[in-house]
Amino acid sequence: MSIVKIFSDSTSDLPQGWKDTYDIGIVPLYVVFEEGTLKDGVEITPEEVYRRVAARGALPKTAAPSPGDFITAFQPVIDSGHDIVYISLSSALSSTYQNALLAAGEFPEGRVHVVDSETLCGGIALLVMKAARAAAKGQSAADIAAMITAARSRVESEFVVDTLDYLYMGGRCSGMQNFIGSLLKIRPVLRLVDGAIVPVARIRGKKEKAVEQMLQHALANAADMDTELLIVAHTLADEDAKYLETALRRQTGVKEIAVIHAGCVIGSHCGPATVGLMYMR
Predict the structure, then answer these.
(1) Of 226, 215, 268, the residue nearest 31 (C-alpha)
(2) 89 — phi, psi (to 5°)?
(3) E strand or H helix at 69, and its extent?
(4) Shortest CA distance to 216 belongs to which of 150, 158, 172?
(5) Residue 173: its pLDDT value, please?
(6) Three-class DSSP category at 46
(7) Which residues contact 86 (CB under 8 A, 6 or more apart)?
(8) Are 225 and 280 in contact (CB under 8 A)?
C-alpha cells in the first residue's frame, strides 16, 4: 500500500480490476426497499433492483452511508499509519459528503481528506483514478486532495435516459410529462452542472438520435479532452456503450476508453438502458 489510500463510494462504479490494482476502498450507499435495506453492489445487483421495480411499480429509496460506516472503513487504514483521501458523490445529490466530513473529524487533523467530486458515476471514477495514480507515485494526501479539488470542475458528464418511467416514479417529472414523453418517445439528455443534474435536451424519436447527439457534443470538445482516460457508463445498454466506445476510439486521441456498468443507486434513479459519457477537459 502507498502512503495514501484512496477511498470513494459505490456510486463511483469502479471496475473491480481498478479497485484491486490500486487498492481503492469503497464505502457503499444503501438501497432501501420495504422489506429491508441493502448495500449497493454488495448485497444487491442492479438487475435485481430493476426486477423489483418492475414487480412493484415503485422505486426503492437510496441512503447515504452513516458517519459510523465511514469510521469503520477508515479506522484500520489510519491505525496502519496511512493517510486517506476520500472522493464523494456530489454533495448536491446526497448527504454522503457531509457524513464523510463528520467521520473525518473523529480522526487526527490532516489524516482524512474529504473531497466533494461534484459529479457521479464515471465522473467520480475519473477523479478517483487520477488520485489513485498520484498516490501510487507517492504524493501526499494533502497534495492529492488539492489536485482533485482543482480538477473536478473539468469533469464533463452527460447521460441519455431511455425512459421517463424512473424519473416519474422518483418525482423528477409529472405524470403528464411521463405520458406525453412516452407517447412521443422523448429521450432526456441530462448533464451534471455545478454538482446537480440538469436536463439539456429532449430528443424525440429513436434513442439512437439522442445517443448520437451526446456523442457529437463530446466530439466537438475532442481537442480539449484530457487524453488519459474517457469513460462510457451504462445500465444494461451494451450496444449503445459499444457504439460510443468504437466511435470515440476512432475519433479522439484518448489513450484509454473504459466501459463501466452503473450500480444500484445510479440505476435506481435513471433506470435501465441509460448510457453516459464522462471525460475531463
Answers:
(1) 268
(2) -55, 150
(3) helix 67-79
(4) 158
(5) 37
(6) helix
(7) 6, 7, 8, 27, 70, 74, 100, 104, 112, 113, 114, 115
(8) yes
Q: Which of 184, 147, 192, 145 is nearest to 163 (CA)?
A: 184
The CA distances from residue 72 to 14, 21, 157, 219, in Å, are: 21, 22, 31, 43
Residue range 201-257, pLDDT digits in tens: 888 878 899 999 999 999 999 999 999 999 999 999 999 999 999 999 999 999 999
List Cα–Cα distances, 165 to 95, 217, 235, in angstroms: 25, 25, 15
With contact defined as beta carbons under 8 Å apart, do 100 and 89 qualify?
Answer: no
User: Where do we find the cell 484509454?
Assistant: 256
Question: Is there a contact between 279 and 254 (Cβ–Cβ < 8 Å)?
Answer: yes
For the whole model, what pTM was predicted?
A: 0.92
C-alpha span between 38 and 236 (Å, rounded): 21
* Per-residue cell: 63: 441512503
Cα–Cα distance between 23 and 109 in angstroms, integer? 23
Cα–Cα distance measured from residue 184 to residue 276, given in angstroms and rounded to the nearest whole number: 22
Given CA atoms 200, 203, 206, 210 in this order, what sign does their dihedral have? negative
> From CA 137, how far away is CA 188, in angstroms rounded?
41
Nearest partner of 211 among 236, 183, 184, 189, judged by Cα: 189
Nearest Cα neighbor of 132 from 43, 15, 44, 227 is: 15
